Amino acid sequence: MKITSPTQFQSDTGPFDLIGDIHGCGSEAEALLEALGYQLLYTGPEGARSYDVTHPEGRKPVFLGDLVDRGPRSPDVLRLVMSMVRAGRAYAVMGNHDDKFRRWLDGQAVKITHGIEESIAQFAQEDAAFRLEVRDFLYQLPSHLILDEGLLVVAHAGLAEKFHGHFSGQERAFALFGDVAKHRDQHGLPIRLNWAADYSGKPTVVHGHVAEHTVREENDVYCLDTGCCFGGHLTAMRWPERDIVQTPALAAYFHSPRWA
Ligand SMILES: [Mn+2]
Question: How far is the CA of 86 from the centre of ligand 1 (A)?
Answer without folding.
Answer: 23
